[in-house]
């Protein structure tokens, strides 16, 4: 994946679970790599006039997401690369402040064929099975839940309107978490954690 022009797009998709329209609408003013956060305030919408940027899907979709270091690093590298492209084009660059754009600064295409053919080739080169780009959102949620991240936190990160939505979509990940909770409770009730802390 290293060296791919839109590497940061893939990293951000997997690291945050942001929706495709949210990633495409993301502006540099929404990113703070020092604080390690991304603000989701808008998305790409289908209107009668065509695809347009608009406010986020719902009030729950408007959110601030904490970025892991791997994402902030990828975004910094991406910014440097984009600035180099911009310098080469000069006045021909379309300054829309977009984090992810084409080679002249315009909005990325959204059709499956145009936007994802490079991604499919990337998966093939890496020896990975075909997975729709939206699958990275599901992968992000599944990985977090499998590592024991609270479902409420995951739900907020994904911009779901209710925790019940997250539970419905990713409930299959939770049974082992209940087993872990039972083991933890057993340790608490037996005083094992307390004894370990005093040793």
Short description:
By secondary structure, the protein is mainly alpha-helical. The protein is built from nine helices and five strands. The protein has two domains: 1-130, hpI Integrase, Chain A (Orthogonal Bundle); 133-199, no CATH class.
Task: Describe what you observe in this structure.
It is a single chain. The protein is mainly alpha-helical and 199 residues long. The chain has two domains: 1-130, Intergrase catalytic core (hpI Integrase, Chain A), CATH 1.10.443; 133-199, no CATH class. 51% of the residues lie in helices and 11% in strands. It has helices at 7-16, 20-25, 69-89, 112-125, 135-146, 151-158, 163-170, 175-190, 192-198, and strands at residues 31-32, 37-40, 42-47, 50-55, 63-66. The strands form two sheets. A three-stranded antiparallel β-sheet has the order 1-2-5, with no helix packed on it. Strands 3-4 form a two-stranded antiparallel ribbon. A hairpin with a 4-residue loop joins β1 and β2 (37-40). The relative contact order is 0.13. The mean pLDDT is 85.
